[in-house]
Structures are given as C-alpha cells and as structure tokens.
Amino acid sequence: MSLATLRDSIRATREVIYMNTGFTGPSPQPVLDRINEVLVREASVGPASPDGLAFTRGLSGEAQEMVAGLLNATPDEIFLTHGTTEGVHMVLYGMQWQPGDEMVTCSLEHPALATPASVIEERYGAVSRRVEVSPDASAGEMAEAFASAINEKTKIVALSHVQYSCGLKLPIKQIADAAHRQGVPIIVDGAQTGGQLNIDVRALGVDYYSISGQKWVLGPNGTGALFVNGENWKDLSPPWTTHAIADARANPELGPPKPAQRFRIASQSPALVAGFTTAVGLLREIGMDNVEAHCKSLGDRLRAGIATIPGCSLTGPTSFDSTCGLASVATEGWSPAQVVQVLWDRYKIAVRAVTDPAAIRISCAPFNVESDVDALLDALRTISKERPPELKPEAH
Known about the structure:
Blueprint: H1 3-8, H2 12-15, E1 17-18, H3 29-45, H4 50-71, E2 78-81, H5 84-94, E3 102-106, H6 111-124, E4 127-131, H7 139-149, E5 154-160, H8 172-181, E6 186-189, H9 201-204, E7 208-212, E8 224-228, H10 243-249, H11 270-286, H12 288-306, E9 312-314, E10 326-331, H13 336-347, E11 349-350, E12 352-354, E13 359-363, H14 370-383
Parallel strand pairs: 1-11, 3-4, 3-5, 5-6, 6-7
Antiparallel strand pairs: 2-8, 7-8, 9-10, 10-13, 12-13
Helix pairs in contact: 3-11, 4-11, 5-6, 7-8, 12-14, 13-14
C-alpha cells in the first residue's frame, strides 16, 4: 500500500474533495471489504456459536496487536474503545478525586476533555486549571505555561495532542517530562493525531493516550483505542463497576480478568473491530513517517497559500514545530457556516465550521493531494471577493 493506492481505494476522492477527515474520515475499500467479510462470516456460523465466539475473540486480539504496533506499546497496554472520548473518560472518571485536587488542561480543549473537567469540579470539589493558550502559541511558550501550572495539588495533566479547532500541536514530550518531575501522570487526547502523526508513546513518555478509529485512521465509526502504561492500571478504578464485582463475574475457566477487562461495559461489533484493524494495518504498511510528512507538507502548502489571499487569514499556528495537517481559516465578512455551505454547494469541497476561534477547519489527510489544496485555495480566492449568501436552514 502506498499513499497513491490509498487514495485510489477511497471512493470519495472520485466525486468530491474531502477535507473533513478531522471529523470523520472516508474508509478505503479494503476496510469496507473486511467489514463485509466478517459480517458474512458471523451470519454463516452464528455470532455466538463456539466457532463464532472463537473467531470474534481472535479479532479483538488482532486489533490490540495492530494498535500496539502503531503506538509502540504492548498488546496488554491497549484497551479497545468506541472512540477517543470513551478512553479519556475512562481515565478521568476512573481516578479517585478529592476536594482540592487539580487537573491541568488547556483553554482550547474539545468538549471531550472540557466537559469531564467541569463535571469533576462540580461532583468532587476538584479544580480545573485551564491554561490560557493562544491558537498560534510556540512550543516553547506552551511548555513553559503548562510546566508553571503543575504543582503539588495536581492529580493529572489532561491535554489534546493537537487542538481540534485550530490545529495547534502541543509539545507533549516536554509537558510530560515536567509533569513526571512532580510525580504527576498525563493523559493525551489523540483524536486528531492517531493516523496523522507517528506516535511513539514510549518516546513521548505519556501515561495514557486515546485515539479514534474513524478520523485520520480511516476506520469505521464506533472504534478506537486507549493506551495505558502497564504500571498505571493500578491507579484506575472501573467507573461503571468495581474490581470485586468484575472478579466475581469472571469465567473461572478463563482465569482472573486482566485489569483492562474490568473497564468494559459494552460489546463491540466484531466487523467494525476488524475494519479498524485493517485501517491501522494500511497506515502501518505505508509508514507513519511517510503519512505524517505528507499531511504536514499539504498543511504547509495550504498555510502558504492562505497568506496570499486578501481577506483570508489563518486562525492557528504558523511555526514549524506547532503545525500539522490540520489548519483553520477565517474569511473576512463571512461566517464559517457560510463558507462551508458555498464550498460544498459550488465546489463539492467538504470542510467543517469550528468556533473559538471561529473559522473553517481543513484536514489535509493521507489520501489528499496537492491539487485538492490548490482547488480549495482557488475557491477561497473567489469567495473572499464576494458577498456571503443567506444560510440554508440545514447549514446552521
């Protein structure tokens, strides 16, 4: 598999210019084929027959091994989830919070992190220290700001690796080092990095890292994974049960449950798990170094082009160490929703509107090419000279 064959295997590239992978990515044909294959197999032998159960349990193990290879972890450190948010909430709600405990997070966070931070404040009397970060902050500025916010009351640092609204990439390694110097763990929301960046959880030094399957990985909805450093399972309690209940429900023929098994509350579609595994495998075959370099190159091309369009401006980072394949753009006199509508209606270019800062967000994914970026830039050059249209009801 190469970047070119990946593109050829995605049907959306034939009809539209799809640049909204940061929301949900289109799956390549091998992923669709694998999902269908597993559904047919289940229908043939019966999903809960002895053969069916053995087959589906094997799929989960394959997924853990594949994701472990993606993140440089071990399979026992990988917990399959239904998406990034589930993994983040497992950790945050699995900690034993006391009044006065502090969580260090970022002012730009997605609700997946911002919401549990507020709930934990309200429910337990904890404090969320939301570090004010500019969307165009440098890595040095961010590292210093987060290090200064960590103190003896800090229970965990919880951050997105890339901020969803503007594409700002945080210096996670430096922040993790600062947290660990004070004995504080760090959880990273990797919704915008799994499948875009070459993630090495060992090199980053993180304790927890959660990714989605349906975004940059290009897998199906309802899939994802959480990395838990093997030493950190002991610091979490299952949010929806207890260790004792999990032990009591365990099948004695299979032995005591592994720590990760105690956190599961819902089954997963074996077909979707298999599709997730295939999607990860395709990216690993291409090479995550190649994927990251390609997305970054397209993002750089986009940012350079925006700088030449009067009336358009970047609302995120421009420095090399803080940028990636995700970028956001504001158009003077236009709301983000108006730009999204016209790009789709007139040019069949798919992007999304974001707030804080208000802009359109553009995802330069592994299957995108330079001509996609250039077509978007040409469209924005035209749009920026026009008056915005009335919004259609469905665009609000």
